[in-house]
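Hi V.,

You were right to ask for the full record rather than a summary. Here it is.
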Amino acid sequence: MKRFIIIAIALITSFMGSLGSAEAQTVLDGAWIKEHNKTKKVVQYPFIREADVMWARRIWQDIDLRQKMNLPLYYPLEESNGMKSLFDVIRDALLVEGSITAYGTGVTGLEDDFRTPLLVNDVKNILSKVDTTYTEDPDTGELVEVVQRIDVNNQDVTRYRIKEDWFFDKQRSERYVRIIGIAPLKERISEDGEPTGAYEILFWLYFPECRYVFANWDSFNRFNDAERRSFDDLFQKRMFNSTIVKESNVYNRNLDDVYTGMDRLLKAEEIKEELFVLEHDLWSF
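Predicted structure:
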């Protein structure tokens, strides 16, 4: 009888311990359940007829995540309070969920018209490469092969390139900006392990497809924690700072191919000013 009681007490203690651990895993971290963005639906674009577009221009811009206004796209570096960095959201959507498709940049690395869809293994090979180096063995003096796996994480992606169409709809008498594609950029590293200042595009993403993923993830709001903006809200409301790197031209050249240093920045600002002046000139007062 005494042995039975001891066994019963042990079973009850074990059950209460497992129940306590289960309760600890379901503790609400906050005063309310955050479910707004988790169930948020994408607001569809208004339909545009080709006959109503009286003016259009294609623009490529770079978003530098080191700028203060763009920090909500870069942080947090590790998932915290239900938030991720934009690159973590993209990587999980590509490799875990399979909800979006990545497109290659072609042989030249300049292709951005979504002609080459990438498989999951292709994306894995882009984000994780094997580097083979040779080092001298201090004991024998012979060269020894060293295989090292280099992974691309969210800290390495410090820029995004967006391809967008600026156009004026005469039916609504309004100028629109539609983001067509977005691409994460990684800075190239020299053989000595030093940053070169040049950036390479990892892959392109079709932005209208990404909106369904971006709309369900919070981004940080420095003014009000109760008003959580999704990544889709940041892009739709143009709450980021960017620099024009290319506009549609007959030579299909980037600004870097023609201008350098301060001249390139001044040309980018000149193009941006022309876009706003053109919108103003389309009206009659």
